[in-house]
Protein 1
Amino acid sequence: MATKPGISNGARQSRLFTKTRREAPADEVAKNAQLLIRAGYVHKEMAGVYDYLPLGLRTLNKIIGIIREEMNAIGGEEVLLTTLQDPEAWKKTGRWDDKVVDVWFKTHLKNGSELGLGNTHEEALTALMTEQISSYKDLPRYVYQFQSKFRNEARAKSGIMRAREFIMKDLYSFSKDAASHNEFYEKVAHAYENIFARAGIGEKTYRTFASGGSFSKYSHEYQTLCEAGEDTIYIDEAKRLAVNKEVHGDPEVYETSGINKAGLKEAKAIEVGNIFTLGTRFSDALGLVYKDAEGKATSVFMGSYGIGPGRLMGTIVELMADEKGLVWPETVAPFAVHLVSLGKENDEISKTADALYEDLSKAGVEVLYDDRDLRAGEKFAESDLLGIPKRIVVGKEAATSGAFEVVDRKTGEVVKKTRAELLAR
Ligand code: ATP
Ligand code: MG
């Protein structure tokens, strides 16, 4: 089976440089960061600043892969814009001022002129598109990226869910009018539902009416029910919709959404994504216009759509981890299988495990192979902490009878399988 370019199927744990630890840093309060640090998925540099290590990066890349597939499926074209921001574009939209955008990180060139580190990319991309869009024939366009954002967040208590540097998937739509924009907006909403379902949080995630900002009265957030969430929402379970507390007091939101204010349930939630109608706010400010069929110059109608893959990863941890450690859904787990050998160097058990490792990797199964010489109890505790969905244990019995114990991380269920059955999956 062909492997995915750049992603190896197998890895030996003896060659993994990361170590697990019993304790998370004392100053880390978020469950997601505590567990991810203990399991060696991420490293904390300072408050709100995290590095992704091999296992963490594999999971982050799985999440990014799911999002990318769904963005491509609705016609997204992927780019990668620079983080460095020219103040000129931001001055035109009125967002260079720290009083308007309170999360800016700014810096200077050697010659003294100012630069910004991007916290979002409406300005840069809209300015760029003025060179690409001139006629109604150039529309619509849907452009997205996975790109590092910098935000001087005031509070950094939610681990990787609120970082000061984080990768965002940001998609921007360029349409000729509100009607074609609305059509695409609903397509993005549907793609987002697919993403959250594939990442295993679909059932707990609600499309939520929130404040809209510049153009439309409301935007939509995707809010995942979780006690660790920073937001409060009011949910209508039957309609699968919710209203953010910030607009809950506004009677109009209930007319617009069709949600009945009576009988709503208040809940804590994490904003994993959002979708915005921008209208012509940015295209007007930056001169992004097209000529319609009659040759009349018209402002491009825009939308923006964000998801934080790291925040999504943290949300999965918050929702699924148990008292033993991380628990990943198969779709985002760094490996599908944790192969744990209980053998010593060169004994029958290790030889059996080595052979199974080679076979599984060749068959395209992503397998982390614990080939180290450690106590069984220590290996199992570490395996539980890492949260890989299936554990295959190679002990004496497997080496002699050929029956391998397969343990489900989530349910603890144990089944016995032969080598042929394992490779057939
Ligand atoms: P919040 O209200 O939680 O600060 P936001 O309204 O600032 O979020 P956007 O600017 O729209 O969020 O960003 C789009 C997405 O990026 C969010 O839905 C979230 O998933 C993610 N995101 C935002 N801020 C952070 C952060 N500091 N760390 C990690 N992910 C983030
Ligand atoms: Mg924010």
Note: Residues 120, 151, 153, 161-163, 166, 168, 271-274, 306-308, 310-311 surround adenosine-5'-triphosphate (ligand 1) (CB under 6 Å).
Protein 2
Amino acid sequence: MANLKLSHIYKVYDNGHKAVNDFSIDIADREFIVFVGPSGCGKSTTLRMIAGLETITAGDLFIGDTLVNDMEPKDRDIAMVFQSYALYPHMSVYENMAFGLRNRKMPEAEIKERVMKAAKMLDIVDYLDRKPKQMSGGQRQRVALGRALVRDPKVFLLDEPLSNLDAKLRATMRAEITALHKSLNTTFIYVTHDQVEAMTMGTRIVVMKLGYVQQIDTPMNLYNSPYNKFVAGFIGTPQMNFFDVTLKRDGDKVAVTFANGDVICVPYEAVSKIDGGYLDGSVHVTFGIRPEHIDISGDGEGLKFVVTGIERLGNETIVYGKLGDNQGEYTMKDEGNGIIVKLIDRDDISVGDVVYAQPKAAKLHFFDAETEITLMHKIPLYNTVAAVLGGGKLGTLGTETALPAAIAKYVSEGAVDLIVPPEAIVKGADFRLRAAKIEDVDGKKLAYLQNGDHYLFALVGDDVSEGDDYGFSILFDKITVKANGEELASPISDEVSLEGRFTKKETREDGERVLRFFYNVAGYAIEADKENGYKINSIDKDHCYDYTYRYVIDREKIRTANDGEAGLDVTVLEELDYGNAKYAKVRTGDGQEFLIKAEGDVPEKLRLAFDGSDVSVYSTRIDMKLC
Ligand code: ADP
């Protein structure tokens, strides 16, 4: 039994190929985690790093509370089951299962007890005297599982264990492995490229693509709320239908216009989380709808298509079609033009019929055409709010407030758009809107604040109820200001990024050699945590003293140096007053500019200081966090 923690794990192979990027997950004890994704996405590499069969380039791996990056595989208390079974052909099933335990010098009696127990669980007691080649693929995989089981490991790692089995056996073994997980109460990590295995077995699934984690979620959340088009298309069979469309709002309806000119209408309420910027009919977006979320009728309502193929699978009917009423040759589903519909208990549709598809309003998906990220986040990423500036005032949301000086520097007159993330809306006295609806989203309270005919989304506390007038302020340092689509002011992040070298110093203390490491920024040497110093050494080897690194630090952790203390000398360039927060823009001796929090009067010259333990280190050569 064990929990695992992967923190910013990277794998760069010796040939320079980055197979795994910034993989982080907290795995609770007894979870069944599945890594899924197409071939080459880095699933096995990650699993092998957990097993200790592959070195970790950067990042920390904890099993329980122990950092195991440098621990030998045999000491990690992990058992791995491979696709290839990896059984010893000359040994009997019993011997195969007992082998690892004998190596550990376990008493024969206990070995026997463990092997028999596992054999019973896996229903292979009758085969214990056989050699692997006298057994079927499914039986062999059971032996491989048994060999892992007898070790009673903290964590089970399974790498595509069922992919050599036929479809029927796979289904049986899926159920058996799930049952095994339940009865063992151990943490399982399972790698597969098969989304059906992932969906049926995992308590949580990690979807990967090209070395990057796309989404980590429960099977149902992946299905219902895919983060991007890739996840949407990967999970579910037949695949989600995708269409290039534009959206135009008209009152309580939104017209969805397809590439061929066809239009369907969906209720505004179903897409109210999509930012208004996408609803003016000018922006191309990707519309996604699963085959099982489409109704078909012949009455002229909906998206017209010709039925080009039908698969009847008993109660389920898969209908293939082509948009429009063109009767030409068409066999393959072709993105943008083809459509697949899954119907239950319908046998009134035939090839050649012209019918109408009606997507279910509660099941619509929309993705940004370029980033492919969903436009329907459970908590919207931002709100676009129109504002008018003039006379030192900012007029928006039915009120006028003082125009923050820092924004006035960029724009002080005319119409602008404020891009306001929900986190930038806090309880306060500047604005007031009615909370038309409050939704519980993963433990957070999302308020739909009625702003004219659309919503402003904000996160609110438990004291706010539906129907309440909510008084709030906007954190102007956390918003973007745009005029005519051009970004004039951008949000200020919580972190400061500085570049500099990495150095070491050897000293002798009480006759002992002591090695100390430093982050050097514009002449200020910040002592690094020793552990991090060694990490940088182990990742970049001797080159680490020649490279430039990016040092990232929480702005709140930067303070003014005490009298006589070493520090980073900066010149103050300007002060930025956002109303809710004040900053000073400063410049280092080597020309790096950044913002610090400013309180009261800011002198022209400052000496800043911060602790090495608060610094995160990034490579400037490849996109990688070192520590
Ligand atoms: P998956 O298990 O998802 O199919 P892998 O983790 O096996 O993917 O591989 C991820 C990527 O790393 C692939 O592009 C693969 O070619 C590459 N790769 C795997 N092993 C090595 C290696 N030893 N050296 C260089 N590249 C490798």
Note: Residues 14 and 57 are 10 Å apart (CA to CA).
